[in-house]
Amino acid sequence: MLVSYKWLQDYLDLSNTTPAELADKMSRTGIEVEEVNVPSEGLKKIVVGHVKERRDHENSDHLSVCQVDVGEEEDYQIVCGAPNVDAGQKVIVALPGARIVDNIKIKKSKMRGEVSMGMICSLEELGYSESVVPKAYSDGIYILPETAVPGEEVFPYLAMDDAIIELSITPNRADALSMRGVAHEVGAIYRQTPNFKATELVEDTMDSVENYLSVKVEDTNDTPNYRMRVVKDVTIKESPMWLQTRLMNAGIRPHNNIVDVTNYALLLYGQPLHAFDYDKIGSKEVFIRRGHEGESFTTLDGVERVVGPENIMVTNGQVSMALAGVMGGLDSEVTETTTTVAIEGASFDPTTTRKTSAQFNLRSESSSRFEKGINLGTIEEALAFAAALMAELGEGTVVAGEIVASETIPANPVVTITLAKINGSLGTDLSVSDVNDIIEALGFDYQVEGETYAITIPSRRWDITIEEDIVEEVARIYGYDNLPSTLPSGESLPGALTINQRRVRRLRDVLEGSGLSEAISYALVTETQAQEFVQDKAETVKLQSPMSEDHAVMRRSLISGLLTDVAYNVARKNLNVALYEVGNVFKYVEGQKLPQQDKHLAMALSGLWSEKSWNSTNQLVDFYLLKGIVEKALETIGATDVRFVATQAINEMHPGRTAEIFVGETAIGFVGQVHPSTAKAYDIRETYVCEVNLDTLFAQDLAGEAYHEVGKYPSVSRDIALLVNKSVSSQDLIDVIQANGGKYLTNVALFDVFEGEKLGLDKKSMAYSLTFENSEATLVDEEITAVMEKITSQLVENCQAEIR
């Protein structure tokens, strides 16, 4: 919301307050000020000029040579390229030495042989955005009113000497999306009551609005308020300078005296209005209904749109004339030929308006206000004000009466609160008189009995409904900076991490010590990504109103987010990536009303693990590298009996390089290579990933931190080489060895794998080192030999292994 400081002074006495001071006060009382901008700052030597003569430039087909009175003894000759410059006009002139927008300096120059003493300026050259320049002057210079005096500074005429205060309005303070709302807010800060002048509405009692229109609303839930007035015999022309400048300073483009009045009323009251060319309505009936399936409608921007039952339409009984609350129709817009105007003042369902605005990507000043809410108590007043001003500026007549098709009388709720509640919430010691002063400053009616208040909330503050709202209002006006600073009271309790929080921290330490970096990915993904890398089938959690299709579903796996991060790095030539993430995943579980949330750990490795140097070669990431990191991480938090079992159940993973991770008999996750087709879809190279369900892992019987005395007796190692079928996995062999290795077997390590034609195409050689240790005595050779014989026989029997 852009607020004019001078306009605000029409309602309040701000003579002792600078714009900067006002901005500081507003920011400290709850409405943040983004900036204070004076449009004329940085500009100089820009004056009113009177074009006395104009002739075509002899050496150009588009330049004009003008003699301009700039208040000096002699006229200035200025060469101008604007197509609309002509003799008799009052224009904006930048004199030699002037500074215009972007600090450009204007100098005396020669243009194709003609001397030019300055520049005749457009509004853009003074810093106005193209979007707010009146359409009549969008391709040329701006014409000032006849009353402008040559030689005087141009800034007061254009209201460029005003201070424009930009407010950042939160959704709960939509009352400040109007000058009247801001005036009430500033009045409360400075203990003033805004002075709003009453509008005198003169009607033609010889004519009645019923002679022109009848209005019907199909559903009052869609359109709680709908009123119309008619102004006849108007003349469409440019708005006066004061109205144009107020609109431009507020970021709105002037059009004509009728349309500009609707925008002026919107800024003043926060009430969107719409003006129809009465003769283009095509009937004497106005009907507000839902759109028909496949119905076609052309909006004011000239775009044909297909509407449906989800949209509220203003029609003439048959054909749509406006997309209610968002934008009017092209066929009924006010143009130069309009003589009779039908004005709409209404309120529409905020949710439907927001959805319609989003559906057609049409954000307007009107839709933003209907979405956040408007003051239902001033709809009638705003409509009457607009009709009176249109009649004045358009030299027309207001037809007697108004049509009220639907009306919702705003409730004025009464909020009860005690002084003890206010002081207890704020930590203050305010008296009854202090609170009385604040409530009166806010302009609220109230009654107080003892220390209990019954406060009547006016319709302009529809955001206030409960005790806490009153506490906030008292705090704002009293001043947040005046609230006392106190230390927390009560008994303090020592804080500590839970056992699972400590486990997560240890996991992070291990992974970061191994060389991985933590990533934080979006929890919202696409529908396709939500179904990737999951081991169970469950219903996804979808948002009802997603911001985009790319972030419409809650993730079920962390891996899709990590692969997106890998792709982001690879696209920027960072090819070696090692990431991990700890985060939540979501799914619906049958029988549960709310989605289930599980904590997962995921990792992703891609590219080189280490680069070549003088004493080593490049090491690419592979399955065994990531598997080792996983084993170390699980070991750190006390997970024992960790097994890896080959799986082909996950479509997005390589069928020959993926293993499911078990702790005991419980599956906790998986590790392996991303399927080449999936990697191609993400536009990444060979990548290895892992995902572990931490909730499932932490539910296991984890050993925790265990410390053992260094053994007094030597350990014994034995090696065994086995010839087995390729279909036999290392885990199968290790399971048999551990099951038969006895209580003294402490470690089994694979140290060699060999495949070759000499062994057979379907054979492989696996060599293991077995470590035995007895903490109470020295192991003898007979004990080890007996165990090795048992292991050997079981390997032959269960795995059809040949001992080499």
Automatic annotation (TrEMBL):
Pfam families: B3_4, B5, FDX-ACB, tRNA_bind, tRNA_synthFbeta
GO cellular component: phenylalanine-tRNA ligase complex
InterPro entries: aa-tRNA-synth_II/BPL/LPL (IPR045864), B3/B4_tRNA-bd (IPR005146), DNA-bd_dom_put_sf (IPR009061), Fdx_antiC-bd (IPR005121), Fdx_antiC-bd_sf (IPR036690), NA-bd_OB-fold (IPR012340), Phe-tRNA-ligase_IIc_bsu (IPR045060), Phe-tRNA-ligase_IIc_bsu_bact (IPR004532)
Broad class of where this protein is predominantly found: cytoplasm
PROSITE patterns assigned: B5, FDX_ACB, TRBD
Cofactor binding description: Binds 2 magnesium ions per tetramer.
Catalytic activity: tRNA(Phe) + L-phenylalanine + ATP = L-phenylalanyl-tRNA(Phe) + AMP + diphosphate + H(+)
SMART domains: B3_4, B5, FDX-ACB
Stored Gene3D superfamilies: 3.30.56.10, Bira Bifunctional Protein, Domain 2, Ferrodoxin-fold anticodon-binding domain, Nucleic acid-binding proteins, Phenylalanyl-trna Synthetase, Chain B, domain 3
GO terms of biological process kind: phenylalanyl-tRNA aminoacylation
The keyword RNA-binding belongs to this UniProt entry's keyword annotation: yes
GO molecular function (one): phenylalanine-tRNA ligase activity
Enzyme class: ligase
NCBIfam families in the cross-refs: pheT_bact, YtpR
Binding partners and assembly: Tetramer of two alpha and two beta subunits.
HAMAP family documented for this protein: Phe_tRNA_synth_beta1
Protein's recorded name: Phenylalanine--tRNA ligase beta subunit
Protein species of origin: Vagococcus zengguangii
Gene symbol of the encoding locus: pheT
